Amino acid sequence: QVQLVESGGGLVQAGGSLRLSCAASGSTFSSYFMGWFRQTPGKEREFVASINRSSGGTYYADSVKGRFTISRDNAQNTMHLQMNSLKPEDTAVYYCAAGYGASDPRFYSYWGQGTQVTVSS
Questions:
Q1: Which residues pair with 4 in a beta bridge?
Q2: DSSP per-residue letters across 62-113
């Protein structure tokens, strides 16, 4: 059993930056593959980035590659998503997830409630 809470969302102008955080509790954080997903009304939840259990491998959607950076701190049971050069199309609710997959949400067992990111033009 894992509880996940996202934070750090907000309003930002295009070209700006935000840092999202995910705090985990209730289980061994280091045993899970962690990921970020996002969803906009009318669209399916899409993969953004993920990081494996050992923090040795990271994966990014093509749309965010080079702009976003995912990281984790197992000692503090936290995960972060540094988002730079934000675009209006990055506007969405961002979700933190824990599981055993990479980019497929079917392989994630636990989800946070989401944090809103709005990028203005």
A1: 24
A2: TTTTTTEEEEEETTTTEEEEEE-S--GGG-EEEEEEEES-SS-GGGEEEE--
Residue 117, CA distances (Å) to 29, 90, 108, 120 in order: 25, 8, 22, 10
Rounded to the nearest 5°, which phi and psi values hold at 88? Answer: -55, -35
> Using one digit for the tens of pLDDT, what is the confidence trace for 86-112?
999 999 999 999 998 789 999 999 999
| pLDDT tens, residue by residue, 59-96 | 999 999 999 999 998 788 899 999 999 999 999 999 99
Looking only at the bridges linking them, the beta strands covering 10-13 and 115-120 are parallel
